[in-house]
Write a structure and sequence with these properties.
It comes from Laodelphax striatellus (Small brown planthopper). Helices cover 8% and strands 43% of the residues. By secondary structure, the chain is mostly beta strands. It is rod-shaped, with a radius of gyration of 34 Å. The N and C termini lie far apart (136 Å).
Length: 238
């Protein structure tokens, strides 16, 4: 066989092999759910993302997503939320997204998959809670000003960030004051302190009203609690 004929045969063989080689598709930047997050109050049924990719041969692509919270239109790549979210129950979703091309020249389709973590963002949907109520305390009328009188008050908030930053105050404290200590995010300890001298004969008891508010700048949630104070009489009259 002459050289030109051999070269023609080799080109035909290599060309046929190349034509049957199916290159892998790729997810496009901005279409691969990298860094994607979702507010916990997103409505089920709402479109939340669009997967996008490219195929070197220009063929059709098909999309899929794992898990129980999402589905995807396999042709358009539009992802919808199908199950309600609750950050306080689950703050991170793990999914596998996949893109598949078409078979080419008898070759098998290619599938490329990526693992993604989707952060569930907090919304202000939990009010502060005064734990361990009712609050009842007793104090002798001769207790010294500045005395720490009651430390059994705990306030919590299940939200996060500014939604769990609490401002706690007493609405009707005159003879008393409160001190607040942040234990952890959304967890506070409150103590009642004596601010003025007591007199059983003038006031044998008090009902203090405490208020806790979160720090959301647009939509604050508030809770209140009462503290019953019994003043103990001390023999101070002749």
């Amino acid at each position: 066989m002459c050289l030109p004929a051999v070269l023609c045969l080799m080109c035909a063989v290599l060309g046929g092999a190349w034509a049957q080689y199916n290159l892998q598709p790729q997810f496009s930047p901005g279409g691969d759910m990298a860094g994607f997050s979702l507010p916990e109050d997103t409505r089920p049924g709402a479109p939340v993302y669009r997967l996008q990719g490219t195929d070197p041969e220009g063929g059709l692509l098909h999309y899929s997503i794992s898990g129980e919270h999402f589905n995807v239109d396999r042709m358009s790549g539009v992802v919808k939320l199908i199950k309600a979210l609750d950050r306080e129950t689950l703050d991170m979703l793990e999914v596998i997204i996949s893109i598949t091309d078409e078979s080419l020249g008898g070759s098998e389709p290619n599938t490329v998959s990526l693992r993604r973590e989707i952060r569930v963002l907090d919304v202000n949907d939990n009010p502060p809670v005064f734990q361990g109520r009712p609050y009842v305390m007793s104090v002798a009328e001769n207790a010294r000003i500045g005395s720490l009188l009651y430390t059994n008050i705990s306030v919590t908030d299940r939200d996060s960030g500014v939604n769990a930053e609490l401002d706690i105050k007493c609405l009707n404290c005159d003879e008393f004051d409160i001190e607040t200590i942040k234990i952890d995010e959304g967890q506070y300890a409150v103590a009642v302190v004596l601010a003025k001298q007591l007199d059983y004969e003038s006031a044998p008891g008090y009902s203090l009203i405490l208020e806790a508010s979160d720090s959301n700048p647009l939509f604050r949630l508030t809770a209140t609690a009462s503290v019953a104070v019994d003043v103990i009489d001390i023999q101070d009259q002749p």
